[in-house]
Structures are given as structure tokens and as C-alpha cells.
User: Fold STEA3 Metalloreductase from Pachyramphus minor.
Amino acid sequence: MSRGDMAKPLLGHRSTEGDPGVTPASGRTIGVLGSGDFARSLAIRLVCSGFKVVVGSRNPKRKASLFPSAAEVTFQAEAVKKTDVIFVAVFREHYSTLCDLADVLAGKILVDVSNNTEINHHKESNAEYLASLFPACTVVKGFNVVSAWTLQSGARDGNKQVLICSNNQEAKRTVAEIAQVMGFTPVDMGCMSSACEIENIPLRLLPAWKIPIFLALGLFLCFFTYNLIRQVIHPFIREQKNKLYKIPIEVVNTTLPCVSYVMLSLVYLPGVLAACSQLYYGTKYRRFPDWLDQWLQHRKQIGLLSFFCAALHAVYSLCLPMRRSHRYLLIETAVKQAVEKKMNIWVEEEVWRMEIYISVGIIALGLLSLLAITSLPSITNSLNWREFSFIQSSLGFIALVVSTLHTLTYGWSRAFDENQYKFYLPPTYTLTLLVPCTVIIAKVIFSLPCIRHRLLRIRRGWEKGRYVKFVLPSATGEYSSGETSSNV
Ligand code: NAP
Assistant:
């Protein structure tokens, strides 16, 4: 089975509106071995979904009160006799203690819900181990990605996926049907060899986020150090002024927009590099280097981190006037002006600069919020390819241009003021402009008709140096065809 096929749900959605209790699988008796957290939540969910539940415990009398009254709690051997589908809600270490039940379990479907404590903990997956202990049973791996809490609270939006695999198609279909009646979306992950992969899923810690998070932290550290030198260390060394109080808010708040802005440009830079590579080699069939491939795959996470930093920057900026240091400095300035008898302190250029850069900044944040919202799977799924590409590509690029305007109006003419070069270091905003401006210039160049046309042809399969069949309109408007080198 191909990877694409495996990602598809086993069953299509069936409407149960107006007839909630009547579903093909409900009414069936399901067995649960074990009486722990998972078994309890599973039993509650199964009962709520219209199934009859029989729980097998080593000590049914003690455990019965923990289960809903509709569920029957009995000894393990008694329970498995009453059903053909049994969820094994027991840890792998205790599978061997179930071997006494081998005879009564023969020919039945065992659903392995277990997880490990470490990735690739054992040589064989837990499901394969269970299958080796009970060769007369059909083992299906599933439900391990759902927590006891999710089971109990119910998959209300019907969006929670349950990954299922087994070597037996019929058994897999039965378990998928049960999952669907319970409100989950079953996903066919193929045969039993996928069990290891399914068991590793709950143990992975944000695999797609590692590189973007390190990138964001690296950029934060670089810009923070740079701003610290300019805003705290320079006044201390040159004027013996203690500006340490600036570290928690001011330095952080000048660092966050730098990270956000550069990260946003890093979302679009790999696309530019990919286009350069396609133009240079004259083909789209040449593989990109691994680092570029990885970069392209992490654009969503990089963009979301850019939005996160921008949102933090907005909150920090709103809080700036609340600080006591700000109030003291304001009063100090007012007193100085009163002493100097300065009545008019209005600087028209400064007023306009600030009005514009705050307004542009708010628009940039709004666009970034839109990009972040549309990257949510539920929203992405409701968009067609053109809508998604328009928002993520065109609107994203506009967000980069608006952020550049925000940065330029913030910096204004400071890049040309030599007092701004602390220890000969240029103002931070000039550094942040480097990558985004490169991306913007490259995008403008790619939109020139001659380059755009060539890029479009390459993306439709045209290759440099290849002979292709062409079709040309004749002077009469009719089409004639022939062979030529597409390189010409
Ligand atoms: P638990 O609370 O410790 O329950 C385990 C149950 O196993 C016990 O209540 C016990 O029931 C039964 N058992 C049978 N033979 C046993 C033996 N020899 N020694 C000890 N217990 C034995 O664990 P759990 O959290 O429900 O997890 C059960 C399985 O579900 C595990 O494989 C786990 O990886 C998987 N899982 C759990 C969650 C979750 O959120 N908890 C999520 C996904 C998957 P009796 O005493 O009645 O026999």
C-alpha cells in the first residue's frame, strides 16, 4: 500500500444525525482486559457510544465500582469468552501473565493500545510481541495515540485521529469501525510493521519544531547580545551610567521584533533559493540539497514563531508606558523643560514618524495573525489550493513588505546619524533589513516578465537542453507542430 493510501481514513464519514445511537458497530460487545486508567476511560467511552462492555480484571469485586454500571466487570477468562474484540489495556511487561488465557483468546481480535517509555525501546513493537505470544489471535495496533483523558472527555470535534495497523484487513476494518462510532477518525497505517512507528508517535517531542526553535533561540541570543552592548554596556563604559534596568523589558522588546522580522524573511528565503536553483539548472526535476529541503519543510513553524515574537513585541510595547522608569524619565524631562522654560516641545517629524510606524506595525501584526490562523489544519483544509497559496504566498510577502516599512519608519534617518554608532556598531534595525531586503529584491526580479515566464515554464516541466514537442500558432491562427530544442 502506498504512503498516500495509508494516510486516508479507512472509512468515510457517516452521518448519525437524528439517529445517534443507531450505528452499525454499536450494540456489539467489546472486551477490555485491565482495570486501570485507560481501561476505565475506554469503558466509559464505549458505553457512551452504545457498545456493551465487559471488563476482565484479576480482582473484579474490588474494581467493579470504578466502572459505569452498564459495564460488566468480571474475571479475565469470563470476560474474553463473551466477546470477539478485546482491548488489551495492560502494560507490555504484563502480557506474559495473560498467557493462561491463550485457549479462550484463540481466533479473537486483540487490540494493542500500549505505549513505551522510550522511542524504539524494544527490538520489536509491543503489538508484534503480543502477536508472538498469541499466534492464534489477530492483533491490531491502535488507540495508543489517544490518552485516557481524551477518551473520557470524548473527541468532540470528531477530528482526533486514531492510527491503526494490522496484517489482517478484516480485523483492521472492525477496529476502525469501532473507532469511528466512538467519534474518532481512523487512519490506516498499513500492516503490522508500522506498529513501531505508531508506538513512537506519543513519545516524540515536537519533532518539526526543533530546528525552528533553535533558529529562533540563536537569533534571539545574537540580537539580545548586540542590543545589550548598545543599550547597557556602552552607556556604562562611556558615561558610567547604570542602565541595567533596561534588560528585562527594553532590551527584550528591541530584540523580539528583530527575531520576528528576520524569521519572517527566512520563510520566504528558501523559496527564492529554490527558484534560483531551478533557473540555474533549467529544471525542476533536480533534487534540492538536503538543507534546503529541510528548510522548505519547516517554513510553517518558522512563520508561526515569527508571529509569536511579533505578538510578544506588541504586548511588551503596550506595557512600556506602565513602567516606573518610564514615569520617572517623563517627569524628569518635564521638569528640565520647565526649568529651561521650553513651552513648545512638539516635533512634527517625530510625531509623523511614530504615527506611521505604529500604524504599519499594527497592519503587519494583523497580516501575520491571518497567516498564523490559516496555517491551522482545520482552516487549511477548508481552503482550496489557490486560496491557500494566495494567503500564504502573496499575503505573506505583503506582510514582509509591510514589516519592512515598519522597520524603515522606526529607524528613519538614524542609520545616517553617527551618534547612533555605539562602539562603531550600526543601529540594530539596519542589520535586520539585510535578509528581508534581499528577499524582496529577489522576488521583484523574479516577477520581471522574462524571468517569470522562464520560471513558470520550468515549473510546468520544461527542461534546459531537452528536445521537446512544441506547438506554435501559424499566421492564419492554426496550430503547427514540430521538434526543436527548448533551450533556444
Ligand atoms: P494502569 O492504570 O496501571 O492499569 C494497568 C492494568 O493492567 C491494571 O489496572 C491491571 O488491572 C492490569 N493488569 C493485568 N495484569 C497485570 C499484572 N500482571 N500486573 C499489573 N497489572 C496488571 O495503566 P493504564 O494507564 O491504564 O495503561 C494501560 C495500557 O494502556 C498501557 O499499555 C499503556 O501504555 C496504554 N495507554 C495508556 C494511556 C493513558 O492515558 N493512561 C494512553 C495510551 C495508552 P487488574 O488489576 O484489574 O487486572
In short: Residues 209-340+347-460 form one domain.
